[in-house]
Amino acid sequence: DCTVTGMEAHAGPTPMALRKDAMQVATHLMQEVVAAALRHAPHGRGTVGMVQVHPNSRNVIPGRVKFSIDLRNSTDALVDQMADEVKAYAAKLSQDTGLGIQIELVSSYPAQAFHGDCIDAVARAAKKLGYSNMPAVSGAGHDAVYMARLAPSGMIFIPCKDGISHNEIEDAKPEHITAGCNVLLHAMLERAGT
Asked: 185 CB contacts (<8 Å, ≥6 apart)?
């Protein structure tokens, strides 16, 4: 979570040069979250998904803005690098504007690599069944992340309309679902030694 602290003031009589507008400073930092992700392509992700503006009034310059920062990448080292860049930008922005900027770590989830044998079994099953396949990095959390800490694990992804997943409008064709299930079946049979 990031909190930018400025000073509330009335929108009408406060000259632009005297404002300590937390919202304007926060928006610069929000853009840096996205820029950091873009600099760390192809798996960099930067999201501001929650914003709280205080006092949240139409005619008051915001005195405090709190927002979430969600950074993701394929390795912990890359996430740490992105976070360091955002923190450095925040420190410079605070120095340049005179507004307080505090970043607090709320949660952190380490990247989880899947077992090579499971990954290979999925690739072999897809090839055996005549399906195209490729290695993928998932930026979303899945139950398999926790299973991988207990036993060899892997994942199978299938195409979804417009690439949308983890959303109520996610839409997969029945033939893609069937293909994914068949790949899973064959990978499991191979791993079971049958």
From this structure: 125
Which residue reads 């959390």 in tokens? 141
CATH code: domain of residue 52: 3.30.70.360
Angle between helices 22-39 and 76-97 (to 10 degrees): 150
State the total domains in the chain: 2
The whole domain housing 44 covers 2-103
Q: Which of 9, 31, 18, 188 is nearest to 98 (CA)?
A: 18
What would the pLDDT profile of 179-194 be if each residue is shown by its tens digit? 999 999 999 999 998 7
Same domain, residue pair 93 and 129: no
* Alpha carbon separation from 70 to 20, 44, 77, 113, 130 (Å, rounded): 26, 11, 15, 20, 38
Q: Which segments of the chain does DSSP mark as H helices, in order?
A: 22-39, 76-97, 116-128, 143-147, 174-192
The verdict on residue 111 lying in a domain is no
Same domain, 63 and 86: yes
Cα–Cα distance measured from residue 156 to residue 117, given in angstroms and rounded to the nearest whole number: 14
Residues 66 and 9 in one domain: yes
Q: Read off the pLDDT of residues 44-98 as tens digits, 9 standing for 90 and up.
A: 999 999 999 999 999 999 999 999 999 999 999 999 999 999 999 999 999 999 9
Distance CA 70, CA 13 (A): 37
Q: What is the DSSP letter of 115?
A: P
